[in-house]
Amino acid sequence: MLADDTLANVLYIDLTKKSYKVVRRAELFDKYLGGAGVAAQLLLEECPEKVEACSPENPIIFAVGPLTGLYPLASKTVAMFKSPHTGNLGESHCGGRSAVAIRMAGYGAIVIRGASDIPVYLSIHGNQIHFRDASSIWGMHNSITAGRIIREAEPHAGFRTIMRIGGAGERLVSYACVTTETYRHFGRLGLGAVFGSKKLKAVVISGKHSLVMPDMKEYRRVYDEIFESATSSVIMKKYHDLGTAENVLPLNQAGGLPTRNLQQARFEGAEKISGEAFAGNYLGRRLACSHCPVGCIHIGALREPHPAEPYFYKTSMISYDYEPIYALGSMLGIAEAGGLLKLIDLVEVLGLDAMSTGVILAWATEAQERKLVSLKETMEVKLSWGDCASYMEAIRLIVEQPNAFYRALARGADHASHIYGGRDFALSFGGNEMPGYHTGPGAYAGILIGARHSHLDNAGYSFDQKLAVDNLPEPMDMISSLLKEEQWRQVLSSLVICFFARGVYPADVTIRALQTAGFNLSSGDLLRIGRDIHANKYKFKLREGFDLDLQALPKRIFETGTPLGNIDEKYLSDALISFKKLMGFS
């Protein structure tokens, strides 16, 4: 029995009919806990088979978990949808205030169906749901400005989140993101394009609901234990001090930092764009997601002189993390921190996924170098490694899509390479562009078999980093380890615990925290739930046509050495065969 029965409330919204209803789905939360588990089941229920990702029938599902609003670092919202970028499972996680706002509004999940005939934004304040006309801000490509306007128009008290899209979502760029609280995102796999296809500019959610705990003494005991673990751990200190940008120099030193479209794995300019360099020269402030004591969000302060007025300066506050530093920095040969911050800011303003954007531009740069595309296709933009100005112009053109080439780039590296060539160096896996870890076979096996083709699915890169060059495990052993990790992460993402805090929430602590929230489960129960959720995700992927045998591996990953040496193509192929055996696909 749930300690707080509002978690079982699912809000169903129909944009076509401008209607809504609340349905109690306690059986879903009893079976799948919340978050990714509940969202995956709702996606199977709500998304018609083989539906076009940008059609009204593709649902948007948000879900939170039973620990949201109760414990530190249980502060993610899971969004699930059919991805316009890969054509199968779309899943993205976002921090900030979104999860707590949904929970305080009195819901465990929100399902958005249909499409509006005019631009709208949803206003959800507890049990008050409004369909607001967004015509005046539709066409406003700056997602930050749109958020400010909505913030002024929606002055409700309580925990509040504003999820919104920029120009990329409106123009249906397949890797458009949804921005919340300015510095957090539903980043990967194109949720922004699904918003845009529904003419949904934003979703505002606020609430003042109270969570009542049946045993306050035990709750406080468990809370204090988790808080102490989070604030005293070495890994949490790392995320507070330098953030994920701390990864730049160690990966570069090891030879695992993708550079210039992975033509190299070390970047000579790494020190200039490292976490240490940003902290020393640009750090303006640190922020944290709701109920997080760590504060891993690092904001750079970029001070620039006014172009026309002497002695006047503009200071821009720009969030930076490892992934945008890699994708828009080393991957594009950019070693100038100020220019890199400008690129990150433009991607932020337009509402694009930074990782996909950088990898796609890296492919386009090499394609132009190899004369697969000409200045005619790029509209006289000469893409050159390290040239921030040319990349900024290309980013604007990807959103505007004035010709066939930029329309192709707006659908990803895999799509563009099928048209123009260069598939051997189009660094896309399962249709999703690579993350910044060229660490060995585990990294690539992990993102290819991962349910959402993300490095965070099973942390294959972390698996690599524990190995020695002469100590590679058997392919089956590697895959077994990755699969076990991914199934456990289904539990964490159903409780919506930040993966950075996975060491703070081992099974025994998770069980005790769940007991205070009304869930009496054993470690065996949690493992079963993780397996069931993972199976549900693959059920959706296979239903929508995903076939591991059809996923090409770009030759580039075998040509550029990793910290474990060059990846053996047969080893990786055997690993994928092992995965199919374990999953019962062959």
Summarize the topology.
Blueprint: E1 9-14, E2 19-24, H1 26-32, H2 35-46, E3 60-63, E4 77-82, E5 89-94, H3 98-104, E6 109-113, E7 120-125, E8 128-133, H4 143-153, E9 159-164, H5 167-170, E10 178-180, E11 184-186, H6 191-197, E12 200-207, H7 216-232, H8 234-241, H9 248-254, H10 275-281, E13 283-287, E14 297-305, E15 313-320, H11 322-328, H12 337-350, H13 354-369, H14 375-378, H15 388-400, H16 404-409, H17 413-420, E16 428-429, E17 432-433, H18 441-449, H19 460-465, H20 475-494, H21 507-516, H22 523-543, H23 556-559, H24 569-583
Parallel strand pairs: 1-6, 7-12
Antiparallel strand pairs: 1-2, 3-4, 3-6, 4-5, 7-8, 9-10, 9-12, 10-11, 13-14, 14-15, 16-17
Descriptive notes:
The radius of gyration is 23 Å and the shape is globular. The protein has 24 helices and 17 strands. With 586 residues, it is an alpha+beta fold. The chain has three domains: 5-207, Aldehyde Ferredoxin Oxidoreductase,  A, domain 1; 243-420, Aldehyde Ferredoxin Oxidoreductase Protein, subunit A, domain 2, CATH 1.10.569.10; 432-583, Aldehyde Ferredoxin Oxidoreductase Protein, subunit A, domain 3. The strands form four sheets. The protein has a six-stranded mixed beta sheet. A six-stranded mixed beta sheet has the order 8-7-12-9-10-11, sandwiched between helices. The chain has a three-stranded antiparallel beta sheet with strand order 13-14-15.
